[in-house]
UniProtKB/TrEMBL annotation:
The chain crosses the membrane at residues 42-68, 80-99, 133-156, 162-183, 195-215, 235-265. This is Transport permease protein. Belongs to the ABC-2 integral membrane protein family. It comes from the Bacteria. Keywords: Antibiotic resistance, Cell membrane, Membrane, Transmembrane, Transmembrane helix, Transport. Pfam families: ABC2_membrane (PF01061). The lineage of its organism: Bacteria, Bacillati, Actinomycetota, Actinomycetes, Micrococcales. It is found in: Cell membrane; Membrane. It is a multi-pass membrane protein.
Length: 276
């Protein structure tokens, strides 16, 4: 009898090896997002940019006239507006990245059912995760650049290193986009998504954005220093005020670890949901 079935094992295109995770084409996911964005309301997109601008106008330029100067690392002092502006820049980058990596991903994952279609092609889970995160970075970069222009117009960039605040803000956006997508992959209902705002609001208020961390008791300072936003605020503030030093590098390391953890968890989660 002729042997009709080959002895070779049948290999699923998404199982085993690096190719099971990565096809090297996250740009396809970004391109799909940009095409879909054409039909989006740009008023909604820009609304996330104006929130920190309003804080700067009311707190920095308004309340700041009564506060005077604030001490920064390195022994110098700056105006209150120059103190909170870099913090709000970090918040702006965070807001842009978080929106796309949480709410947009939530709809695509649970209602649009887009990832099943993507993973049915040659794309791997890492392509999808990295592509969605890169797309979220675009909004974070848009917000950061716009806010930097406003800071420059009001003379709040006090050092030549302020230009590095743009890649610093991009690093902040990358970290929050990676972790945001990882967390969102576990969300099943709209009520679960409310937890994100429950975390973001206190993190914004207590991450030394509006006043120095030194006003807290020592044990609370330790809690605040565990917040990812605090690391972004300290990094960007050091760049815009000229107080950058080697000690700031640990903030960069924090975000690099945050990015890697987010990518790993998101990739594993997408594979578990749609491939295994």
């Amino acid at each position: 009898m002729t042997q009709l079935v080959s002895d070779r094992p049948q290999v699923h295109p998404h199982r085993g090896g690096v190719r099971a995770l990565w096809a090297g084409n996250p740009g396809a996911v970004v391109q799909r997002g940009l095409i879909a964005a054409r039909s989006s309301s740009w008023v909604v997109i820009l609304s996330g940019f104006f929130e920190p601008v309003f804080y700067l106008a009311s707190m920095g330029l308004g309340l700041g006239t009564f506060i005077g100067t604030v001490q920064v690392p390195g022994g110098g002092s700056v105006s209150y507006a120059a103190y909170i502006a870099p913090a709000l820049l970090a918040v702006s980058a965070m807001n842009g990245a978080i929106y796309d990596s949480t709410w947009n991903v939530f709809f695509k994952l649970n209602y649009g059912k887009l990832y099943e279609g993507m993973l049915a092609t040659s794309l791997g889970p890492l392509d999808v995760a990295f592509g969605e995160i890169l797309y979220a970075l675009l909004r974070g970069l848009l917000y950061a650049c716009g806010f930097m222009i406003i800071m420059q117009a009001f003379g709040l960039n006090l050092a030549p290193t302020a230009i590095l605040a743009i890649p610093g803000a991009l690093l902040v956006a990358f970290g929050f986009a990676s972790l945001g997508m990882a967390v969102t992959s576990y969300m099943k209902t709209f009520q679960h998504m409310d937890w994100i705002n429950l975390v973001l609001l206190p993190m914004f208020l207590f991450s030394a954005t509006l006043y120095p961390i030194s006003i807290y008791p020592q044990w609370i300072q330790g809690v605040v220093m565990a917040f990812p936003l605090w690391h972004g605020v300290e990094l960007i503030r050091a760049l815009t005020t000229g107080a950058f030093s080697g000690a700031m590098l640990w903030h960069i390391v924090y975000y690099v670890v945050m990015i890697v953890v987010g990518l790993v968890f998101t990739t594993k989660r997408l594979r578990a949901l749609f491939l295994d």
